[in-house]
Each structure stands twice: as C-alpha cells, then as structure tokens.
Amino acid sequence: MGTLGFWRLAQADPDRIAAVDPDGTEHRAGDLLARANRLVHGLRELGLEPGDGICGLVPNGADGLVLYLAALQAGWYYTPVNWHLTGPEIAYIIDDSEARAFFVHERHAAEGMRAAAGSGLPADRVFAFGRVDGARPAAELTEGRPDTAPAGRTAGATMHYTSGTTGRPKGVRRPLNGLDPDDSAELMTFLLSMFGITPGKENVHLVTSPGYHTAVTQFGGTALHMGHTLVYMDRWDAEEMLRLCERYRVTNSHLVPTHFKRLLSLPEETRRAYDLSSLKWMIHAAAPCPVPVKWAMLEWWGDCVYEYYAATEGGGTIATPEGWRKHPGTVGTAWPISELLIVDEDLRPVPTGTPGTVYMKMMGASFEYKGDPAKTEANRLRDFFTVGDIGYLNDEGFLFLCDRKADLIISGGANIYPAEIENELTVHPKVADVAVFGVPDEEWGEQIKAVIEPAPGVEPSPELAAEILSSLEGRLSRMKWPKSVDFIEEMPREPNGKLLKRRLRDPYWEGHDRAI
C-alpha cells in the first residue's frame, strides 16, 4: 500500500490534468485537491462528523467530483442523486439518507429546490453550484478556508440508491472501514486491476454515463485513484464519443450495450474516420448484450471489449475477450473474490446447465438496504444475495444469464425468457430498440408482446411488424414469437441503459391480477 489514491497522487504531481469537463475545461489535480480540502473544512464547521451523509444533484463534471473527494476523505457517505427524478422523489432520498447538506447545480435548480423545500433539511444546509434562488452559494463553504489537508482524515464511501423496481429506491450502505482514505482508495483499485487495467497518467478514462450510477462512480473514481485522467461526457452521442477517444487518447471506459448498438449504426466512413488505437479496456455491463452486437464490436475494436455482471450490493463475474470468444453469450466467470450459486425455487443448488436464480457473494463485503432489514434479509441466502436474475453455469464455470425473474413470461405453463427474444429482434436493421414482456391472455395466462422503436427514418406499419417477426424464422421456435407488436417513438431507458420495462408493461395489466 502507499503509491495510489487521488490525494497522494495529487500532492506528488499537482500540475497533472486530472479531469476534463464536458465543455473542455481542464482541471489540475492540485486544484481539485485544494477544493476538496476546503470543502471538508467548511462542512466540518457546520458540524458534520464521520458517518454523516451529503447529497449532490449535479451533472457530470468537476463539481460532483469535488463532493466525492471531500466525502471520501472525511468519513462521510456521499449520495449522488439521479437528476431525472422529481422534487418529491429527491426529497425522499435526502431524508432517507439522513443528509446533513444538499448540493444543487443550477441546471437542476427547479426540482432541486422543490426537493429541498419538501425535505426535512434546514434551508441553510442547501448549497448551490451556479445561481440557484433560495440556496447558499457553495463558495460560502470554501472561501477563506485553508486548502491544506484536514486533520483526522478517514475513509468515507458512496451510498447509491438502487433504481427501485418496486416501491421506493433503497440506499446500499456499507460499513465504513476506518482506513486512511488513500489506502482505502488503493483497495478499490482491485476492481479495475481484475480487467488488467494499470495505473499511470498515460491512461485516460472516458465517463460516458451519469455519475449517479454505481458503476460509473466506481469505475471513474477508481480510474482517478489510479492516476488516470477523467474525461466527462454530458449527453452521450456516438460520434462525439469517437471524437473524444481520438482527441484525448482514451484507454478505458465503461459502456452499456445500447451504446454499442448506436455506435454500430454510424455510417461505415464515420466509424473509420477516427483513430481508436489507444483503446485498451472498454468495459460493458448493465444489460444483456446480443451476441451479434458483441461480435461486431470485437471485430471493429479488437480484443479490448470486456464484460462483467455485478450488482450495487457486491460480487460478480468477468468475461475477458478471449473467454467470451470461446463461450459466446457468457457474462464470464466469478471474480477471484466472489462466488456464485444457482438455486431452484426451493433454494437447492441446481445441476450444471440448469437455469435457476443467481446468487452471489463477495468476500469481506457486507451491506444493508438502509432502513430496510426485511428487504436486506429477503434477498439473502446465508451470506449470498440475489438481484433476482435467472441464469446457469456451464461445466467450465462460465455464467450465462437467461433473464430477470420479474420479467419471466409463463405462457401455457412454459417459461419464456424475454431477453432471448429481444436479442434476436434487436439485430434486425429496422429495429433501433426493443422490449418484450408478457401481457394478459385468457387462454394461456400470458402472451408475448413486443414493443419496438423503429430505426431512424423507418415508418411503423403492420407490414413492418410482419417483416420483423418473419426474420425470426428458423432462429427462434414459434412458441417464442411475439403474438403482437406495438411501435413506440422512444424506448423508456435510464441513461445507464437499463430499460424501464414496468412503464411499458403496467398499462396492459390494469384491472388484471399478475399470473406470477
């Protein structure tokens, strides 16, 4: 221990560019360190102590990074808030996380101030980046404060809220480890080193998704602690990403399959116009990646495309390019510090090749859903936990996912996995995005419905639906074909690529009891 961690690296090399904002503004490591130190001094004067929390409603860029760096060296929990939420939803997170201070960026002023007013937080604890009526400028916390390291530094943590497929989102809270912040950050780098990622300022990490997602914070924060420069994107755009990769000589990033699909739909000459020779570790997760899409990315970018499967709660798998080529469609094998368990409905382990509920555990990691011991326990099996995915292991220990338990369609007593159907439909050139789910059927219990976002310039029609369905001939058994197709202008996805399937499915089930 003792060579990595942002604060150590920034003292050793203060002039290094540590972050680049979406507008191109560059930030030196020494300046970010000074801002984070001043913020700790200012918040301590307000009475914040180790174990307390702060929330930030901020876009990608240096402001959020400073909140993260302050909390992680002062022993606080930092909760980055989803900026797509409404005021009351944000107020719930402020209250539930027991935040002692709330930071709002001017871009999100309207919902942020609605949230502040609806929360139990005193008005003098609400701070603004930029101009926000009714909030104190964040500069009031930092002006005149020393930029030297605060005394009694101790490691903090991020506390992300899960997207909450049912009911309110839950904060995933880990016990603080009491370590020196740089030593704690160095331990975090284990995650990236599993992919073979190396420390050093020659490396550049591209942040492609909003920082309120766990994986985005984990990968971006860890890259920073390894001495990489962070280049932030604001709103993701396929060609803009290629431009940034060439301009900053990006070596690593964290992506989702939706990004791949959009990159691959760029014209061939656009794709060839950029020099991507710097790419080394382009990592994807968060949603199933159709096999043909992954093959196309490996063909284009070469063996730098890595995949993993994990959850905010801890534990997971990793698929190297070599491993995936040998076992196409896999999400990989268990991390060295993780274990997998596949069980049936009675929680008994199933044989190799048999689908069941996927449970994972990570050595030395414990967590709770904040304020919800019942939910914490419900998802556990001894010291394993599940997020409700169904999958199987092959005889070499490679995990293949079938679907989420909640999305399983039971039609005429047969289990049907929508992800398998989505993967086949999404490769059709006239399909931009697709969701498959079960809708009520008097005879069969459920029937298969596909909702399709047509590719740009393609007009929805019954003929288009028939053409897309007929492409399944010989690739998918008839029992898995959607019985009906609806078209939608834009699929409801979170910016991290997760599909909000409930939003599509719920209207069809109004007035019906769910069969499962």
Mean pLDDT: 91
In terms of per-residue confidence, which ranges show pLDDT below 50 for 5 or more consecutive residues?
A: none
Kindly state the number of beta strands: 28
Instruction: Quickly name the level 1 CATH class of one domain.
Output: Alpha Beta
The assigned structural class equals alpha/beta
How is the main sheet built? 9 strands, mixed
CATH topology of one domain: Rossmann fold
Number of helices: 18
The radius of gyration over CA amounts to 23 Å
Strand content: 15-25%
Description:
The structure is a single chain. This protein has 516 residues and is of the alpha/beta class. Strand 24 (409-411) and strand 25 (414-416) form a beta hairpin. The longest helix is centred in the N-terminal third of the chain and has 17 residues, at 29-45.
List key phrases describing it:
Acyl-CoA synthetase, single chain, globular, 31% helix, 28 strands, AMP-binding_CS, ligase, Rossmann fold
In short:
The protein is α/β, with parallel strands linked by helices and 516 residues long.
What is this structure's SSE topology?
Layout: H1 6-12, E1 17-20, E2 26-28, H2 29-45, E3 53-57, H3 62-74, E4 77-80, H4 87-96, E5 99-105, H5 109-118, E6 126-129, E7 136-137, H6 139-142, E8 157-158, E9 172-173, H7 181-188, H8 190-193, E10 204-207, H9 214-225, E11 229-232, H10 238-248, E12 252-255, H11 257-264, H12 268-272, E13 281-284, H13 291-301, E14 305-310, E15 316-319, H14 321-326, E16 333-334, E17 338-343, E18 356-362, E19 368-369, H15 373-378, E20 380-381, E21 384-385, E22 389-393, E23 399-404, E24 409-411, E25 414-416, H16 418-426, E26 431-441, E27 445-454, H17 462-470, E28 484-487, H18 501-509
Parallel strand pairs: 1-11, 3-4, 3-5, 4-8, 5-6, 6-7, 10-11, 10-12, 12-13, 13-14, 27-28
Antiparallel strand pairs: 1-2, 9-19, 14-15, 15-16, 17-18, 18-22, 20-21, 22-23, 24-25, 26-27
Family: Belongs to the ATP-dependent AMP-binding enzyme family.
GO molecular function: medium-chain fatty acid-CoA ligase activity
Keywords: Ligase
